[in-house]
Amino acid sequence: MGIKRAMVILFRCFILLLFLACAGAVSFYSYGQYKDYLMLKNTETEIYALIEQEELVQDQLEMDMQYSMSDAYVEKVARERLGLIKSTDIRFVISND
Q1: Residue 78 CB contacts under 8 Å (≥ 6 apart), including other chains
Q2: For an engineered disulfide with 78, which of 22, 41, 51, 84 has Cβ 3.0 to 4.6 Å away?
Q3: Please, are residues 44 and 38 in contact by the beta-carbon 8 Å criterion?
Q4: Rounded Cα–Cα distance for residues 23 and 30 (Å)
Q5: 8 Å CB contact between 58 and 51
Q6: Cα separations in angstroms, 43 against 23, 36, 37, 38, 40
Q7: Reduced to 3 states, what is the DSSP secondary structure of residue 97?
Q8: Global confidence as pTM
Q9: What would the pLDDT profile of 3-12 be if each residue is shown by its tens digit?
Q10: Which residue, among 69, 22, 60, 89, has the nearest Cα to 77 in the 3D structure?
Q11: Mean pLDDT of 52-69
Q12: How far apart are CA 54 and CA 43, in angstroms?
């Protein structure tokens, strides 16, 4: 009976060591997965910040586009860049003669 009992104890110790090895492997794997999760979560936060910034740029571009299609913009460009005046405006010419 002594040998049989020793074999049972040895078997139980083997099972316990096997269980501990598996638990360690799972813990090690889970830690790696958790690190990957944290890295991806950080990347996600950065991407959402970039998206928000680009949406602000897009909103500004849309406002600029709407303004460039307005009559006020056309008049401003005609006066400032092309030197045109309205028919009701009075043009003053200054000469150095």
Answers
A1: 84
A2: 84
A3: no
A4: 10
A5: no
A6: 30, 11, 10, 9, 5
A7: coil
A8: 0.53
A9: 888 888 889 9
A10: 69
A11: 96
A12: 16
